[in-house]
Amino acid sequence: MSKIRILSDHVANQIAAGEVVERPASVVKELVENSLDAGAKRISIDIEGGGVRLIRISDNGSGMDEDDVLLSIERHATSKLREEKDLSAIATLGFRGEALPSIGSVAKMTILSRPENADVGTRAEMTYGRLTKIHQDGCARGTLIEIRSLFGNVPARKKFLKTRRTELFHIEEAVRNQALAHPQVEFFLHTDGRQTLHFPKARDLEERFRQVYHYQDMLLTVRSQDTPESTKLVQGFLLPPESPEARTARLRLLVNNRSVRDRMIAHAVREGLHGFLMKGRQPAGVLLLKLPRDQVDINVHPAKQEIKFRAPQEIHQAVSEAVQLAIADYQHQLKSDLFVVPNQSQPQKTQVESFSRPGDGYQQNVSVDSEPVRYSPKNFPPVAAEKNPHVYQRELHIGEAPVNEDKPSFTGLTLIGQCFDLYLFFEKNDELVVIDQHAAHERIIYEQLRRAYFKDKITSQILLFPKTIELSREEGEIFAQYQETIATMGFGVEHFGDDTYVIKAVPALLGHVQADKLLNDILEGFKTGKKRTGKDALAALLDDQLASMACKAAVKSGNRLAPQEMIGLLEQMRESSSFSHCPHGRPVMKTFTRDELKKWFYRT
Ligand code: ADP
Ligand code: MG
Questions:
Q1: Going along 456-553, which residue ranges are E strands?
Q2: CA separation (Å) from 450 to 126, 457, 492, 509, 541?
Q3: Pairing between strand 186-191 and 42-48?
Q4: Lesser CB count within 10 Å: N end or C end of the chain?
Q5: 402-417 pLDDT, tens digit each
Q6: pTM
Q7: What residue ranges line ligand 1, CB within 6 angstroms?
């Protein structure tokens, strides 16, 4: 007699349930997907006891007649797929015909459903996989499914569930994911009788995004260039990387309206945000990919939470480019918010002119209104400047703001002053703008260095006294390997013989840094960076090197600035293509509104 046996449907369903029904949230996901596939415009979810006691989902979708209700609980029964070829172009969320029978095999399930053209509905009741009742029953058009005593017959499974709160969190996440994928559908979630989520029908993804993330401020809008030939459409919204909300929120991915996990796409988003995301922080928001159906295989995971792309490289690139575009747009938006004066007809005079006119004293023209003087030369002791009027300029390379009487109100920002030798304070209409001088300058220089590097080479400064340096054998090898890059970075170094090298020129912006130390750091950077692998390893390494050069060249925390230098920095921010974050992703500025300040002082 043969040892091999064909499993009964009941056992097969329980095995499938092991994959499909991991926890209450998976039941919610499967049932909501069924409602969406049935064309529901309103889906209401009730949860009791963390989903173990009760999950009830009702929808106003197409409903089922008695025959279909009976079939729906059969294994491998689906209305969404007929032939093998349909598998390569699945347009529905479900297709495996597994969810209802699997869920039904590990819970007590009631289905109540009525299609539009029927006068009466059907009620079916199942207990752990056995149909116990089926009869006609009155009900609204659509479907209501109740799942009670989840895992009641598989205690081992139940033991693996986490606390009620954790399970509720996963359920809410599942609802949020589906809600983002279907903005036009209204969702309700009630837990233990209390409404915990409600997303009214939204106009578009942005409106739904704001409902889900409770976020009203400026967003990064991701949108790939939508040409007629383009087959990949990337869309979405990201929270500004520095926003406090982004710390706890997640990145969600929707591929052809299906919520999925995919590390490759998450990586592409991080790459697109390179230089704007702090180390250790994750991007947050929602990204939506529309691809031709034959470009994705969704049949690789029983709960369909993972997918496979036909051309992952292309998608990676499309996503990271779209995110880069979003960052560029965001810079643009920030810039026009910061520097454009709303009331153009009466341009406000800024203090640029007065600051740059020697002998004027800082007090004059400083305040726009008649309030007491906000600072005096005492607060800005031009110590170094007195000894040498060009010292800031030379050491810090901050250009002074040009004196131009024809250019009234070039920023709309009024300088208040510098604080802790690091933060610059400006007043702008109804906002207080605080700028981190080092972070701001670092980004500006980094952008300049990058542009120079890729256009031709970074400008060098010939050293008056060439500097001799000894390199170890390893350093010598690294130098030989990266010689060209190092030259493009603005260094002039020659091998003198044996271990001896002569530095004849350094990047002009770094003229004030000790030349041998500078070269050592660069070689060290190449040494550690060499360990990186991957296609873009060299680009990433170079970015790091340029960022570290920018850091050295930028004004530091602790550098006292003259007012014209502060204004000069602002002017450079306005000219720079990117300015909002330092190359390591730290934010450059923070604004406080008048209303926020008022609230601090209970002036409401
Ligand atoms: P699948 O979704 O993969 O087809 P399911 O087991 O989830 O498999 O559902 C089986 C079938 O039951 C579906 O194909 C669909 O025809 C029907 N069905 C399930 N839920 C609903 C619903 N809420 N409204 C209408 N029909 C439904
Ligand atoms: Mg389904």
A1: 460-470, 492-497, 500-507
A2: 66, 9, 18, 13, 13
A3: parallel
A4: N
A5: 544 443 345 689 999 9
A6: 0.82
A7: 30, 34-35, 38, 59, 61-64, 72, 77-80, 94-100, 143
